[in-house]
Specification:
The complex is a heterodimer. Chain A has a single domain, classed as TIM Barrel. Chain A contains 15 helices and 19 strands. In chain A, the strands form four sheets. In chain A, strands 1, 2, 3, 4, 5, 16, 17, 18 and 19 form a nine-stranded mixed sheet that branches. A four-stranded parallel sheet of chain A has the order 6-7-8-9. In chain A, strand 11, helix 6 and strand 12 form a beta-alpha-beta unit. In chain A, helix 2 packs parallel to helix 3, helix 7 runs parallel beside helix 8 and helix 8 runs parallel beside helix 11. Chain B is of the alpha/beta class. Chain B has two domains: 148 residues, Aspartate/ornithine carbamoyltransferase (Rossmann fold, 3-Layer(aba) Sandwich); 159 residues, Aspartate/ornithine carbamoyltransferase (Rossmann fold), CATH 3.40.50. Helix content of chain B is 38%, strand content 13%. Chain B contains 14 helices and nine strands. In chain B, the strands form two sheets. Chain B has a five-stranded parallel sheet with strand order 7-6-5-8-9. The N terminus of chain B is likely disordered. Classes of the chains: A alpha/beta, B alpha/beta. Chains A and B meet through helix 6 of A and helix 6 and helix 8 of B.
Amino acid sequence: MKAEPLLIRGGRTIDPSSKLDDIGDILLQGGKVVGVGSGITAPEYSTVIEAAGLVICPGFIDLHCHLREPGYEHKETVASGTRAAAKGGFTTVCCMPNTNPPLDSAATIEYVLAKSRAEGLVRVLPVGCITKGRQGKELAEMAEMARAGAVAFSDDGEPVLDSRIMRHALEYSLSFGLPLVDHCEDKALSAGGVMNEGWVSNRLGLGGIPAAAEENMVARDISLAQQTGARIHIAHVSTAGSVELIRRAKEKGVRITAEVTPHHLTLAEDRVMGREFVAAGYSCGARGLPSDSYDTDAKVNPPLRTAADIEALVEAVGDGTIDAIATDHAPHAWEDKVCEFGLAAVGISGLETALGALMGLVSRGDLELNTLVSKLTAGPSGLLGSRAKGLGSLVEGFAADIVIFDPEAEWVVQEQDIVSKGKNTPFKGATLRGKVMATIFEGGLVYRADGLKVRGAK
Amino acid sequence: MAQRKGNATESQTIEQMDTPAWQHRHVLDVDCLSRDDIRLVFQTTDAMMEVLSREVRRVPTLRGKTIVTLFYEPSTRTRASFEMAAKNLSADVVSFAASGSSVEKGESFIDTLRTLQALGADAIIIRHKQSGAPYVAARHVSASILNAGDGWHAHPSQSLLDMYTLRRHFPDLQGLRIVMLGDVLHSRVARSNIWGMTTMGAQVVLCCPPTLLPDVFSRSDHGPVTSGYLPEVTIETDVEKALDGADVVMPLRLQTERQEAGLLPSVREYVERYQLTVARLRLLRKHSVVMHPGPMNEGVEISPEVAYGMQSVIEEQVSVGVGIRMALLYLVIGGGR
């Protein structure tokens, strides 16, 4: 926590939580926001960031990422993952419990929190397991984990297949009021699948995962949430059918929220055929597969879907059906991805490319900038209960978590620049528009890009 | 003598061959081959078939070249055929046996490929359970990669030999009605033949129960199917209608696991509904032929009477296979490049 004052001057300040969108200044002191407005003068000895032409908003909150610790430190650690988060503009990340051992007890939750205090660059809020060992058989000690600091519960990667256990988990969650984060996948339908089922999977001779594999479980869990009155949060929604189910459930008053990832909002199944293929477009005449096809960087679960799904997802972000954008940052080691497509690990390293990928939707006019900021700040904050109080907001007295980004700057995603241990991103080589210039966590600068204008105290 | 096209080249011997028109370093699938490319493969195969008719069936064309067969899946005919082809061209042949279990134990495919490269392989012939494995290989080594079958995806040398066999029985593939009968969903042979045969102007009919048909072929909402990314084929689940007036029928191997996977009620019912029988064969046109990519399940997808009957060209496919594979090896690491 930084005690010295920090003034950010002359940027476009956007805070959806207080409906603010204006050119102005922000003064931070003692790790808190102490002033928001225009013409704020810098106290003596303060650092000043000149933010003209830049956007200032609350630090992003990621509801869904994988920090891999404990157990898979070769893929990512709390230290490397939070560094990637800071570079991507995130000041709070919720880490998923599919570690080894899984985060299914107060002790493992405390371990992650201790790691985060010692080595983390930004705030880490752990998500605990719904069932012991993510086995789907017996409930994990969720109340004790909640007391230790867990903010939500999920068997992420593994759905709770037994409907009776899922029902009881939802009922039990009513006693501590935290949401269950639901990885929706009917494993019988997805078995053998490594990408979306459709023309590309047939073209490539790869096993497909039909949309129904997700939608079946979304439908089941909506009915269980309705039955129990408990809160459910649908993770990484990927199909138009799921969007429709969630929209209708919200209309009926079911306590349901949902998130979508930047990659499901921007990339389609044909990305598995390689960047060359997508760049050439559907109308190109060449019939042979490009040399970069079977691109394992585009292998993710749920899989990248179709253009029609993307359209429905973007619309759902705009109309409020989807509450938050979460990265599902899933870093992997080189050897997990540089292999045969069917044997490659699933997941995309996403913290550092999130803003750039999403700003593409804004510059194309598909999404309002304010909506985008809201889905990365107030949206996720509202789902997280009392431990997230005041996060995702630029109101005086709250934590000085801030991101400053250049909405116009273009940059090329290059492997050597990625600070996460996971270099597995389908955006490698892509030119993105929208670049994080600085990230401030509890008043201290945890990331600054070259070119940021800073003066004053060191 | 560099004669690119025309009838004159068809009578060339291997010693006279010159194929500057060939531009491919790898043979990963038939989808990237143009009609001219495929014709060039056929012309080269003609010369190879001439070699195979000689008393000494061996030429020095690829002397000093090293060819590796890297098979991650059991195979008898394809492997033997490629190795025989390489030996007929006087190449040094190394068989690298890699079991599926060694992959599961963590032996890396890339590491194996790099090792083979370092040992001086000029061409690596790959059979792999995983679709796309040869494409991964082509990105990591400079040797020519020949796909000898990858997962459900492609089997280009099989498709080329199927088409070459047909060329010996019909004046042209243009306009032929060819029925792929059976498990299209899991068939790399069907996928490659769909590309190859439609490129050569044939009409391809897929006939199987809907559970064995890739969903994409039976749906109308997939734009790219009709815009050149998947060739247009006809779907016919009724076997009698599919065979009516066809020139060629190719039953596909039915694995009994399909019943356990819930794709079929029983092999018995499949046999009753889809087996190529003598009675069903009568629905085809006169002079029609029966092919099979092998290995056959006699009495399942094909009755023995048909498999060994007058219209069967199944053994011819096997013998032509050596010539096709000699041609492919020659084109990628011999005279062609």
